[in-house]
Amino acid sequence: MTPIEIGLISVVAIVFLIYAGVYIPIALGIVSMISIWLMRDNFTLSLNLLKIAVGDSAMVYSFATIPLFTFMGLIVSKAGLGRDIYEVMTMRFRRVKGGIGMATVGANAVFAAVTGSSIASASVFTKVSVPQMIAQDYNPRFAVGVVAGSSVLGMIIPPSAMLIIYSFVAEQSVGDMFLAGVVPGIMLAIAYVGAIWLMAKYTPNFVGGRTVADTEWMPKREVASKTLPTLGLITIVLGGIYTGWMTAVEAGATGALVAVVIALVRRSMSLRGFWDALLETGHITAAILFLITAASIYSRMLGLAGLPNQLQDILAGNAASFWTIMILYVLLMLFLGTLLDTASIILIVVPLFLPLVEVMDLSLVWFGIITVVGAEIGLLTPPLGISCFVIKSTLNDDNISLKDVFMGALPFAFVMLIVLFFLIEFPTLSLVLL
After folding, report:
1. Measured on CA atoms in the order 165, 166, 167, 170, is the torsion positive or negative?
2. pLDDT surpasses 80 at 155
């Protein structure tokens, strides 16, 4: 077999193994090593490339952002800041039809800016938001759909683990990727709020709910106590990166320290909770770095096979336009999103399309935002839809089925797709802060 044929078979094999339940880094690493061995008939070479992959990935200084931001997000979650932000948002929106759904989106957007995790957002707001919406007579399908849709903001609004993973694959600055994710994340949150308003106006039966006209406003002092810690943490982290006062690693370290101080001052976290956060940080960091290492040898395998260059030649030979390439890219991510998680999609498709994007002289930072937003749609689509599964397992309510969660999330997946095409058409939206 030719290297091209081996490369194509390896990509299919990786997708098949992941879908069959094989741990993602194991599938990437083993298939890549075997493919290199077959292409070069040299097992020692594949082992040496694995050794280089470890040195060039897990040992990179910028990846210190992974444990730091992960720890910060876990501390913030355990300190109850997500619940506080939600309570404030709810008081502001309860008099509006569909207002609690809008409040959930707003709270999720703020919470995402200090956690960077869709799974954490889905877990927190399933417990906080869904019971309250159902108590206010909202359609259960709409209630879980709002939480599922807005939870994806955690992977777009920085700090985001997916942006970090992409920055490694594309060799881009983590700080630049974080700044590029701010405007698209805010755009998506606003689009969600607008979609909820339209659904409440034109499909009231799907939304349900009732407004509360006589709700008393929360005292200003209480509003400040519930919002200032989170807003201050966001300002320190993103403001430090934007002004250039801190690198992404330094911002992560500072944010982690400030989060611990906030938790101590609020007395909202026990010593056991702190220890659990440390352990979970270690588990998440090890998993991500293992994934990055496997992705490194996978990229080298694709380079040896010449698959990215072959794809480039095929598209160039057919005189493919910019939009043809981007639609093909989006369709590929949507298809893989029905089978794989976001990280797997990024690690599989980006090395294939990256050389083509470079030849077209497009911004790799912009391409990263397009990739993450496109791959995140997969969190809401069956049969995998990780966020939907997290919501169903966290809710533990037999009256709300997994189908209800997926159907409720469907309108928000469509909104994401619309925003994605806006970001493709107007790259400035992603690059305005750089």
Report:
1. positive
2. yes
